[in-house]
TrEMBL record, chain A:
Cell location: Cell inner membrane
Pfam families: CcmB (PF03379)
GO biological processes: cytochrome c biosynthetic process; cytochrome complex assembly
Main location: membrane
Its job: Required for the export of heme to the periplasm for the biogenesis of c-type cytochromes.
Residues that span the membrane, as ranges: 20-39, 51-69, 90-118, 124-151, 158-179, 191-214
Protein name, as recorded: Heme exporter protein B
Organism in which the protein naturally occurs: Nitrosospira briensis
UniProt entry keywords in alphabetical sequence: Cell inner membrane, Cell membrane, Cytochrome c-type biogenesis, Membrane, Transmembrane, Transmembrane helix, Transport
Keyword Cell cycle: no
Automatic annotation (TrEMBL), chain B:
PANTHER family, sorted: CYTOCHROME B_B6 PROTEIN-RELATED, HEME EXPORTER PROTEIN C
Family: Belongs to the CcmC/CycZ/HelC family.
Membrane topology: Multi-pass membrane protein
Main location as per UniProt: membrane
Keywords: Cell inner membrane, Cell membrane, Cytochrome c-type biogenesis, Membrane, Transmembrane, Transmembrane helix, Transport
Name under which the protein is recorded: Heme exporter protein C
Residue ranges the record marks as coiled coil: none
Source organism: Nitrosospira briensis
Annotated localization: Cell inner membrane; Membrane
TrEMBL record, chain C:
SMART domains per record: AAA (SM00382)
Keyword vocabulary terms for this entry: ATP-binding, Cell membrane, Cytochrome c-type biogenesis, Membrane, Nucleotide-binding, Translocase, Transport
GO biological process, one term: cytochrome complex assembly
Source domain of life: Bacteria
Molecular-function GO terms, alphabetical: ATP binding; ATP hydrolysis activity; transmembrane transporter activity
Name this protein carries in UniProt: Heme exporter protein A
Amino acid sequence: MFLWIIQRDLLLAMRRRADVLTTLFFFIIVVSLFPLGVGPEMNMLRTMAPGVVWVAALLASMLSLGRMFSSDHADGTLEQMLLSPQSLSLLVLGKALAHWLVTGVPLVLMAPVLGIQYDLSTDALLVLTASLLLGTPVLSLIGAIGAALTLGLRGGGVLVSLLVLPLYIPVLIFGAGAVEASAAGLGAGAHMSLLGAFLLASLVLAPWTAAVSLRISME
Amino acid sequence: MAINWFKYSSPASFYSLAGKMIPFFSVAAAVLFVVGLYIGFFVAPTDFQQGEAYRIIFIHVPAAWLSMFLYVIMAMWSGIGLAFNTRLSSMVATAIAPTGAMFTFLALWTGALWGKPMWGTWWVWDARLTSELILLFLYIGFMSLQAAIDDPRRADKAGAMIALVGVVNVPIIYFSVKWWNTLHQGASVSLTQSPKMASTMLTGMLIMSLACWMYAIAVILIRTRAIILERERHTVWVGQLQEATQ
Amino acid sequence: MSTLQGNKLTCVRGDRKLFSDVNFSLETGGLMQVQGRNGSGKTSLLRMLCGLATPAHGDIRWDGVEIRSLGGSYHGAMTYLGHLSGVKDDLTAIENLRISSALAGVEIDERKAHEALQHMGLGGRELLPAKVLSQGQRRRVTLARLLVCQTVLWILDEPLTALDTTAVKLIQDLMERHLEHGGMIVMTTHQEIEITAVATQRLQLA
């Protein structure tokens, strides 16, 4: 059941590859714009890199949130999901996971390449990738709540950013902080454990919250 | 029809009760503001380190307190509304949000005004100021979500969800920002080392906080009454109310 | 024996009261046709019956228990087909059917899905993406779910729209067979349809 949902969303994403690529290219373009805005001074870029990559990842992940439920809402599949004898929280978890596989994982894979643009050391690249790997699922899970609450509203896309971006702040702080800490020789262990804790907490709480929100929005 | 009457009775009775309470809280707020400001401007001594500029704390600190308290209270009423399906609690939550946002903004604004003479800049990325800014974002998110939803029942419930998610996240956000702040020591100036306060300063500040509370309660009651009227405009009792006042 | 009961149901949309004090009781083998002009709240009533919407007053009971408290077990006994088809443009007919059945808690293999689609007159079109199908054919894909999901209660909102006469006949037979085997149907339709059932009732919404 849970697997059916993931499989279906991945299948749909494969049939609409352009959407996936759009998010990825958005991420790449945003990251590449920063040096053009602040100048090509390598020392500055190196210190900016984690923050820039992370903020771009937040934006890219958020921009694709609209798609998580809206097409299912438009064609009636969401009604059927609400009427499923299976638990809705599990379904939402499946959808959030599929969202992460489709938008989060490409960002994680692309991050080291972009890090090279910013002249990050190999260690820093590793930590950056690892922090994104732990942090991006949290973005999809928290984002599911925002997407569920703004379902079918006018201006939903902008609204979802108002709701979700403040909640992303801890992930941003510790995600980017991990790279800085390791660069400063402090080790990224504490940051990584906290990111892991966020991931576990949102795995438990977010699907349920998003499921309740979906029921509210569909009434 | 008995059920109908019962359901509408609580906003109706609250409406008249609030009407009686508003003058009391308004007068209390006005008196306390006058007393508090008098102490703040004329009685409290000039601070030997900060000069006269410190006097802005008489509004800054109460505003910051209220901004946080009101968010928690808003989330509490939202939660009650969601759990027990009591419409009045959701209405109160909706009424609190603009006042809370106003105090948050006031705290940020006075913080900036205070910062300029103290640290020479309008804004520092201090943990408290940053958290306050994020709190403002949370208030704005709550209000824009409710404003975007036409159906009041869905607006109540969706707002309640985001308020509860927000209140769970506030400590995490505050903790993260604090951690972030200590990591970037160079850029920050600590607000925590407050000067030793003369007792008159403390009295003034407490009276000002009380005044802000009274003001907040009065405004929230007035706004709740307006929301009740809007939501219940088709009920019998509102119709009678208008006939009586005409 | 199963029963579906509605007691004093009231629906409020915004400021308007669509209907109030609607009562009915439906038993095994029973068919209930909900009638009323556009905007009288037919769809709202059906959405209430399947638990998507909550009535402003009144309650809905399945075997004497409030459906809200039944949750998943009620949904396992019920199939709702609404205005929206739930058919994905980018998936083939067979994928659509298999996934929607899985969502409803019934996992079917390729062969069974094939048979059901064939029965609905979609033989040879199973592997086409749904976007090239006509409205009527998409409707048939949706209705094919009734064949594979063994639920007792069918709640059907305008099941006959966009269907041609052969398909209408097909659905008619399908419903009659379902009622004979102890099923129950609640439906709305603007078309005249003759279905023989143990008990047929009409619910008129003002």
